[in-house]
Amino acid sequence: MKKILFASSALAAVAFAGSAQASEKIQLEVGGYMEQWAGFSDQDNTPSGGRNNAFQSDTEVHFSGKTTLDNGIEVGAKIELEGETSGDQIDEQYLFVNGGFGRIEMGKNDSAADSMALQAPSVGPVGVNDGDLSNWVDAYLIDTIRSSGDQNRVSYFTPSFGGFRAGASYADDSQRNGSNSYNGTDGGGDSIVSGALAFDHDFNGVALGLSATGEHSEDGYWYGLGSTVGFGNFTVGGSYGHTEDDYGLNATNQDLDAFDLGVSYAMDAATVSLGYGYEEVDNSGDISTVDLGMAYTLGAGVTWKSSVYWFDQEADSTNNSATSGISGDNDGYGVVTGLRLDF
């Protein structure tokens, strides 16, 4: 009898274990993108090493997966692997939890301010705002969203309430971000608090988007405003950003003021955009740039993109610092074209 009871208990235990593990583990899917560009530029001042490259490329392989728990909460992860890099091989890696309470992210990724900020529409490979201009010419890079980038942080995003949504992030000072070392006791970096408030709503065919974002570290802060309006096939928008001179991520240690304006028009498989960007670096100089972009969908996941751009950079006559943001006068133009593959 004991043997029968033991055998029955063993079978019940096996059946329970099989039921408990009936749901499979998260299966990672492979995605990502590849960009290959060719272009030329004509500028007054070439870099000391000679002309800029005629070719540029950017590739990332993404691994992502998610599952829904019995209580309806969604849990997942994303890992972004750089195709070519001189620094970290992993771009972003984080887990997320979604539910009626909102969304929580934890790992190495962008801040709430970065992910929720709006700026002018742009479809070309160069752009005017935190784009690839400095890859093709010797010019200062305009950026209205001067965030802390990928950091080890925790972020929370609220659900949408009548079109309004808020987000907040915190990154500690461990210096783990962008460094091969980790000191969890007395980190030498800056703790970074990030916040964002966004509004997104459709008013009888007119889509309005608004954003107010910012970050604060132990040394200073930056903040920005953005807006987009979509109607018919048109989208217009712009953004403004200010960075204090003592913000820890501002390598130039100067006040930065930047803005961009742009418009895009979509027609079937093609979209064109025209954007203007400007940034002034306190006691250093300023730069303005224009980008005419085009994107044409050739097929599923295959897009042909092109940019024609102009720029004008002027250094302050009183600026003699080699470490300043605007290093010298320069102006010129260029053309870039190529393919983006999304998989």
From TrEMBL:
Annotated signal sequence range: 1-22
Lineage top rank: taxon:
Bacteria
Q: Which residues form the Porin domain?
A: 10-314
Where are the bilayer-spanning segments? none
A Pfam family per the record: Porin_4
Which terms are listed as keywords in the entry? Signal
What the entry lists under InterPro entries is as follows:
Gram_neg_porin_domain (IPR033900), Porin_dom_sf (IPR023614)
**A molecular function GO annotation:** porin activity
What SUPFAM superfamilies has UniProt attached to this entry?
Porins
Quote the protein name from its UniProt record: Porin
Species for this entry: Thalassospira lohafexi
Taxonomic lineage of this organism?
A: Bacteria, Pseudomonadati, Pseudomonadota, Alphaproteobacteria, Rhodospirillales
